[in-house]
Amino acid sequence: MMPNRSADVVVIGGGVVGTAIAYFLVRNNMDVILVEKGAITAGTSGRCEGDVLVCDKMPGFDSRLNKFSQDLFPEIANELDYDISWTRKGSLLAIENEEELEKAKKFCSQLNAEGLPVRILDKYEIHEDEPHLAPDIVGGMETDCDGSLNPMALAYGLVHGAKKLGAKVLTYRAVTDIRLDADGCIERVVTEKEEILSKRVVNAAGAWAPEIGKLVGLDIPIKPRQGQMLVAERTFPVARRKVMEFGYMMAKFESSDYTRDVTPEMEKYGIALVFEPTEATNFLIGSSRRFVGMDTSCHLDVLRAMAQRAIRFFPVIKDIKIIRSYAGLRPFTPDHLPIISETEVPGFYVAAGHEGDGIGLSLITGKLISQMICGEQPSITIEPLKLSRFKDGYRQ
Ligand SMILES: Cc1cc2nc3c(=O)[nH]c(=O)nc-3n(C[C@H](O)[C@H](O)[C@H](O)COP(=O)(O)OP(=O)(O)OC[C@H]3O[C@@H](n4cnc5c(N)ncnc54)[C@H](O)[C@@H]3O)c2cc1C
Questions:
Q1: What is the phi-psi region of residue 60: left when phi exceeds 0, alpha when psi lies from -120 to 50, beta otherwise?
Q2: What is the DSSP string of 308-349?
Q3: Options 3.50.50.60, 3.40.640.10, 3.40.1010.10, 3.10.129.10; which CATH number does 3-47+151-220+335-390 get?
Q4: CA-closest residue to ligand 1 atom 15
Q5: Distance 47 CA to ligand 1 centre (A)
Q6: Is the dihedral angle over the CA atoms 212, 218, 219, 221 positive or is it negative?
Q7: Ligand 1 atom at minimum distance from 288 CA
Q8: How far is the CA of 359 from the centre of ligand 1 (A)?
């Protein structure tokens, strides 16, 4: 196949991460082609929730990176022609018992030390805040700065904005090969329909990033971590904002020094309450965390356990009907940080592995990759995000 296109940069993957990268690059006057094997948001960005959170992040670099990204959303939401439903209603972590409360206080003061506006609510305050929570919930941790948006509108808004500035977006064709020149530098990208001459490629293929890495001989340590979601019918306002259980962090980070009082199924399926009221007055219930390969099917036993967990926190929902369920693949890395990095293959960049934070981190990822490619000073240190951190045997 003869090369029939060329670009300064080819971005592989049309999720929130790839579309944000394309947008930031064209804003920086680069000539960009984005290639997606299905439709925009065909991957995990179309099978998730839309939270942009800092209160559930590890205090330190993780929380700082997420706050940095969060603060980019008001500007980009204004800039895009699409309504991405960006709101900042805050979020709440519900605490089940005194042991969790002590852990939450410590966690809260660590986040405060990072400058994050998080605070502990006592039993009286949390029930005044969310009257439908189970009466035995002993407290909460809340922040006003957390936000939410519609991830599909975000990706389509970014694509529309990038196209307006000159980007080309090629959907329904998979990248099948990436060729190097005699010096081992990126030379061209081969898709099912064309070849694209380009000296730079960004691998933003989420859970599929390892497959793209293999095309240039790179091992990218990302594993798909499945998450299932339930969608409930429209109903009265059960909660005024996003509510998670504090134990959510235990499921996410697999913390071993605390065991929640949950059923063996909930433990096995990595279930922790995520309760998300939507603009349409229904709500989402999540979620599970499992390593089951590339399986995106829902399983009744997992969904049932998720519903039981939600009823434990909000007994009032026990008779509300579920109308839909879906599952997506979080791109998991062993140290829970994404890979936003150049690599040992000149011209090949990786922007993947955002696990459960890809929506929130999309904009900072776009900005950092654009800064790297355009030779600008990065907005935040990129050392902890490098692919090379996994080189010396750091594997799970
Ligand atoms: C249940 C659930 C809830 C979540 N909730 C949140 C949340 O509230 N907040 C948050 O921040 N994050 C959340 N996440 C995580 C978030 O959804 C992901 O981190 C994010 O969507 C990853 O985006 P991405 O662009 O990297 O990957 P994807 O959206 O998966 O995009 C990668 C794209 O690459 C394409 N691709 C693959 N191979 C090829 C190829 N060979 N050629 C061309 N294209 C290819 C795929 O088709 C896909 O569209 C959640 C995830 C799940 C599963």
A1: left
A2: HHHHHH-GGGTTPPEEEEEEEEEEE-TTS--EEEE-SSTTEE
A3: 3.50.50.60
A4: 356
A5: 8
A6: negative
A7: 1
A8: 8
Within the chain, all domains assigned CATH 3.30.9.10 are found at 91-144+223-332
Distant-in-sequence, close-in-space partners of 182: CB < 8 Å, separation ≥ 6:
none
- Of 126, 130, 116, 128, the residue nearest 56 (C-alpha): 116
Taking alpha carbons only, the member of 309, 325, 152 closest to residue 226 is 325
Report yes or no on whether pTM surpasses 0.90: yes
Token pair listed for 141 = 């941790």
Fold of 91-144+223-332: D-Amino Acid Oxidase; Chain A, domain 2 (3.30.9)
Closest atom of ligand 1 relative to the 16 alpha carbon: 25
Question: Residues 331, 308: contact at Cβ < 8 Å?
Answer: no
pLDDT in tens, 323-339: 999 999 999 999 999 99
Tens of pLDDT, residues 166-203: 999 999 999 999 999 999 999 999 999 999 999 999 99
And the tokens for 208?
């599929």
